[in-house]
Amino acid sequence: MYLKKIGILSTLSLSLLLTGCGNKEEKVVYDGVGEAVNYTVTGIEPGAGITDATHRVLDEYENLAGWEIEESSTAGMLILLDEAIKNEEPIVVTGWTPHWMFEEFDLKFLDDPKNVYGGIENIHTLARLDLDKDMPNAYKILDAFQWDVEDMQAVMAEAEKSSFEEAAENWVTNNQEKVNEWLAGTEKVDGETIRVVSVPWESEQASSNVIKYVLTEQGYNVELTEVDPAIMFQAVAMDSADVTVAPWLPMTHKTFYEQHKDNVVDLGPNMEGARSGLAVPTYVEIDSIEELEAK
């Protein structure tokens, strides 16, 4: 990948645009994005949902004939994204929100006219059967739990500099009015254990640690476990866990939800507006996947 980037400058077709009257700063405007990035999408881990979807994108869009996805890791993708933006070079990455990259960098999603990535998703809260009877106060809090993309990304961004536990505590402290809405009509308990299951994604580490802190402050002994998505759904459905705040629906976790929906209680979205797709820095002057040219 690094060798590919070395060759970028020799193949770029660019023009220079003065920004602001009398301003000597220059902005690089890129034409021929595909050639500039060597017809490569910078991706993450093989087998990830967004990786599989991107392979389908490359198959379904005729203008992406000859394109490849460079599979590496989330950390590797972010390093290359940071490098490209510092040098104001074009790059096409697999992006998703909520994620702190959208707090840190000026990025935009490319329109997906064929809707291969599935459009906007919501993150749901799923509880085991009879949780409302066994833990009515926890159930009320979980049912009321709802926050925004910006909230989650703020926790994720702070956790990069500290920890998810510390970032969650600070977010709760700074957003007590919103948290009080979740707590309305509930009472504290004395050491009752509640089992929260999640997945090891940064977005879900943010939400799970926030709800863990809130429930702990209400007197619960919170056991938080991170597992693969399939096991997460199975645990709630089979009463090995009490709740999860991590499922992405209707697309990302559709298969697991369909398998277990009769044995869980869907409390609805705790966050709306999740999205995944191809993303580029805002200085890259294209707006749609269809504007990427074939090799």
From TrEMBL:
GO molecular function: amine transmembrane transporter activity; carnitine transmembrane transporter activity
Main location: membrane
A cellular-component GO term for this protein: ATP-binding cassette (ABC) transporter complex
Compartments in which it is found: Cell membrane
PROSITE patterns in alphabetical order: PROKAR_LIPOPROTEIN (PS51257)
One BP annotation, GO: glycine betaine transport
Domain ABC-type glycine betaine transport system substrate-binding: 35-173, 193-294
UniProt keyword annotation of Membrane present: yes
SUPFAM superfamilies registered for this protein in UniProt: Periplasmic binding protein-like II
Protein name in UniProt: Glycine/betaine ABC transporter
Species in which this protein is naturally found: Lysinibacillus macroides
